[in-house]
Amino acid sequence: MGTEGENVRVVAGRYRLEARIGRGGMGIVWRATDELLGRQVAVKELALDSSLPEEESRQLRERTLREARAVAGLSHPHIIVVHDVVEQDERPYIVMELIDGGSLAERIANHGPVDAREAARIGLDLLAALRRAHDAGVLHRDLKPANVLLEAGTDRVVLTDFGIAQVAGATTLTETGSFVGSPEYTAPERMSGVRAGPESDLWSLGALLCAVLSGESPFHRDSLGGVLHAVVFDEIRPPTQAMPLLPVVRGLLERDPDRRLDAAEAERLLRAFRETGRTPTSSMAPRASTGYTPTRRDVPHTPAAGALQDAPPAGQPGPPAPDRVAALREQPAERPPARSTRSVLLAAALVAAMAGAGVSAAALLMQDGGDGGGGTTPTSSAPRTPGTTGTVGTPGVSDEPSTPTVTRSRAATAPTVPSGYRLAEDERGFSLAVPEGFTREPQGERVFYESPGNAIRIGIKLGDAKEGGPLAVMRRAHERGPSTNPGYRYGRVAETTHDGWNAALWEFTWDGFSATEGPRHTYDLCWEQDGRLYDVWVSAPVGDVSEAKEYFDVAVDTFVRN
User: Fold this and answer.
1) Residue 44 counted as an annotated binding residue
2) Which of the four CATH numbers 3.10.50.30, 3.40.190.10, 3.30.200.20, 3.40.50.620 does domain 9-97 have?
3) Closest listed residue to residue 553, CA positions, set 344, 392, 406, 336
4) Which spans does this entry mark as compositional bias, Low complexity (predicted)?
5) Which tens digits make up the pLDDT trace of 227-244?
6) CA-based angle 407:411:415, to the nearest 5?
7) Over the stretch 122-138, which tens digit does the pLDDT of each residue have?
8) Is 142 assigned a catalytic role?
């Protein structure tokens, strides 16, 4: 808050600036009085770069005023009201309604994260605001908790600071070589310098929902380079607190904008949760191209070790089923692959996108281990497996796998059963969350929980510890993959941990046990705990890989020995 009487002056002959109530990268916000109408208002004094050439400075002022006037044309209860746009001493001022209340960022900082029901309410209000703006051709481009106000007394959600909004048809700041926005909430297609659309604001909403549920953006890192790397390259892991809204968060944080959840579907899912306490699975089909070239749109995620342990559907012949560990040769560790051409091109695009901010994005990425995970490029998003620390990328343009890295482990917590799942307490001494409608099917040492029609299978196997531990077990399984899983390909193994225990993650693609079953993808996590070996995997048709990854994440995260 500013001091009363600080730098009192009158703008445009009617707006008396009385106290500074906020400051940001785009300028200063003042509490002011409209002396003509006798009402309190907020006046945003936009900061301009005095070092710019005169003509460029003039163009920037004109663009700012034009965009501000477009926002003034928006009328919606969850969008800040813009009363006036004026210019004085070649400096733009935006006159807005004065909201009595702090920002969403301040609420999180002072009172901590909110629960899923409140997050859904906030999300619905922001979606309504974004849909109104997008229908008018206005993009926000800086959606984050600091730009969301909560009105005192009513808790009305108000989206503000369209100061860097882009009006359809206008030249964007990105096109002039400058980068605008907050990297932790910025969509990867904007990072790569591609002209953004409404779906970029929806990505920001996904990051915002994670922040209000957990306290910080999932892309928060200790350096700008780390943030950029997290947004563009790292596997995305929504916080545990996002479990009740996981289909929405995962859908919004989809790196390929063509596959990203749209506003209408996100609203439907959030509204269903508000009404029933459960979030249904989205059935939205990919949308038409928006001009951003997806890197792995049609390439399935490399599945996990489940394929070797998978069993054919009832009535179909399968491969021999000897102990998958015994008498198998251990495979030598793979060398890190060369960086792919597309990864290099993306880094170059990042340099262009960040050049106006005086930052070499490529250098930042490199200093933070930004070799793209050994050559990976932005992928169709899949959350990092909860409870594990390895990162296993998917095969991209290059068939070479990325090098997994161990980063951190998750502290053991009581399992949270997400909406749309049930807790299966198995008679073999374990429990885990499985999707509602999945039925139990024991097969020898293995237990399966299968979807209706048996297309997706969750497998569990408990056994004694093996020589060499989980990593050796998974490497031997990978070595034998072609003989146990028809059409085995894209197989890779990553050393990791699970709740502090040694673990390994295996992922691969294969052709299924029959032509009818078709190509499949498998995720498999194996870990050793108290002298026992635990194995959890999910196998699914390649067309259902996104859904299968969610089932796998939830199964691993909620697995508990009874």
Assistant:
1) yes
2) 3.30.200.20
3) 392
4) 303-313, 377-397
5) 888 898 888 889 989 989
6) 125
7) 999 999 999 999 998 88
8) yes
